[in-house]
Specification:
single chain; alpha+beta; five-stranded antiparallel beta sheet; five-stranded mixed beta sheet; 12 helices; 12 strands; 16% strand; rod-shaped; binds adenosine-5'-triphosphate; binds magnesium ion
């Protein structure tokens, strides 16, 4: 409907502009032709009148006004066909006229008489003479002591016939041309807008269930094909987001289903018969663990979804990373208790300040250290390093810094754990992604820890990367912009 109206609009504009041009052109043609035809009649009348005047004024003239036709033929061998000639004296009495006037006479207006008395020539059109429109020239002939007036006239019928025919032709051809142009315009607009219709149809077919539809590419690269390309790109992006969302919700429900199944199983088994208070206690304890796990997942999901919609405000203040890590490392040693891991910290003596949210930054480091502990075998070691962007270490200076010349604090959490291959390194920051699901679950993981880390780092305009080798260990590197104000 919309395109149809656009088609109509284009056609109407086209026809309107063409119409204006054709009418202007026709008007110009008609006016020029009519002017030139009238001027040609006037010129002929005037030259005949001038001839008569010159002849009558010549001293050798045998010109008499009694019988004008004969006189003209005799003196100038002229037979002016279709011209009416009439000669009047000063008082307006007719003293001679051509034979074709017979018993009628040419009309003379008061204005022409007045002009003649002043020696001026007058051209007039008279429509009251019988049925024919007449063009009359009135010319004064000054003689010794009197004055005569010569009138020469001819019918305008031919001129008017020609002009009327032209008018008729224009009145038929201009509307016909406009009708043809509007048909042609509609056809062209239809042809030009057809691909747009195709885009609309494809767009109409696309739903969230059916995002694999694409507009077929055209051979010609023009505005419409660019529109189609842009549209296809947009659908691809939508497709990808929809897939991610689907994956995410199916992962989330799966993740919550496992603890629920365990809970249900445990409760069902324990309800089968009456048990001792110790046994109930044991089941309830295990239930509590599963509930704790679910609560953690729900909390993490809530955090991530609020982060996605930009609802989380960072509580930024100037914080010293050295101080935070110096506090945290001994605390996290508790995590490694009973696993015989060696945790060491290499922190600079001076302050490394950033503008950040203290709680979130602690959460970030805790997640990384917790992972290092979880995924390192007994007897391994974990190292937490902090480097100030201001340090003169050649290594630090040589490294490419994210975000141009800005200076960054770099935190490395390195372990001698199980490591991971290159393929997995690309996916560990995805939500719910775990390399070894069973093993990670055993250790209480849901695969959201690194997604949260990534969000925290990005919210602080930093970046997080991983370097790892399967079986040898991993290094998580966080870079956060330094606060230099
Ligand atoms: N230091 C590490 N060494 C080896 N693999 C790791 C390390 N850190 C993370 N991984 C792998 O990346 C996966 C994702 O880590 P992430 O922290 O997001 O989830 P999780 O530790 O399994 O669960 P959560 O942190 O939500 O409790 C882990 O399951 C693990 O397979
Ligand atoms: Mg983790």
């Amino acid at each position: 409907m919309r395109f149809q109206s656009l088609r109509l609009k284009l056609t109407l504009w086209y026809v309107f502009i063409l119409g204006v041009l054709l009418v202007a052109f026709s008007g110009f043609l008609y006016l020029t032709l009519s002017k030139s035809l009238y001027r040609s009649v006037d010129n002929k009348l005037r030259s005949l009148a001038d001839l008569i005047a010159a002849e009558s004024a010549s001293p050798t003239s045998r010109f008499g006004f009694g019988n004008i036709d004969q006189t003209l033929e005799a003196s100038m061998s002229l037979r002016p066909i279709g011209k009416f000639i009439q000669v009047l004296d000063e008082s307006g009495r007719i003293s001679g006229k051509s034979d074709n006037l017979r018993n009628i006479h040419l009309p003379i207006s008061l204005n022409a008489l007045k002009n003649a008395s002043m020696g001026l020539v007058t051209f007039e059109t008279n429509r009251s003479f019988r049925d024919t429109p007449l063009r009359i020239v009135t010319l004064p002939l000054a003689e010794k002591d009197t004055m005569r007036i010569v009138q020469v006239a001819s019918s305008l019928e031919d001129v008017e016939d020609t002009l009327n025919t032209l008018l008729l032709i224009l009145m038929i051809t201009v509307p016909t041309a406009l009708i043809l142009a509007s048909l042609g315009g509609q056809f062209l607009a239809h042809k030009a807008l057809k691909p747009v219709d195709q885009v609309t149809q494809t767009a109409r077919m696309i739903t969230s269930q059916n995002l694999n539809q694409r507009i077929p590419p055209t051979r010609v690269k023009d505005e419409i094909s660019r529109l189609a390309e842009t549209f296809n790109d947009m659908i691809s992006r939508l497709d990808q987001s929809f897939r991610q969302i689907k994956q995410f919700s199916s992962d989330a429900s799966h993740e919550l289903k496992t603890p629920l199944t365990i809970l249900r199983g445990e409760v069902e088994v324990s309800l089968r018969k009456v048990r001792s208070p110790e046994e109930y206690q044991k089941v309830l304890k295990s239930n509590l663990e599963e509930i704790g796990r679910m609560t953690q997942i729900v909390d993490d999901l809530l955090l991530l979804s609020r982060a996605d919609s930009g609802q989380i405000q960072l509580n930024r203040s100037e914080i010293d990373l050295s101080e935070i890590l110096r506090e945290m490392v001994p605390q996290t040693s508790l995590l490694a208790r009973g696993k015989n891991l060696h945790i060491e910290a290499a922190l600079p003596g001076d302050e490394v300040k950033i503008l950040g949210d203290r709680l979130r930054i602690r959460e970030l480091f805790l997640n990384l250290i917790e992972n290092a502990v979880k995924y390192t075998e007994e007897g391994g070691s974990i190292k937490v390093q902090l480097r100030n962007g201001n340090s003169d270490s050649p290594l630090n200076e040589a490294e490419p810094k994210p975000d141009g010349g800005k200076r960054f604090a770099e935190i490395r959490v390195t372990d001698t754990g199980i490591g991971m291959d290159r393929e997995d390194q690309e996916r560990i920051f995805d939500r719910f992604f775990r390399i070894d699901k069973a093993r990670s679950r055993e250790q209480g993981g849901s695969g959201l820890g690194l997604s949260i880390c990534k969000w925290i780092v990005q919210a602080h305009q930093g970046e997080i990367t991983v370097e790892s080798e399967l079986g040898k260990g991993s290094s998580f590197i966080v870079r956060l912009p330094l606060h230099t104000g």
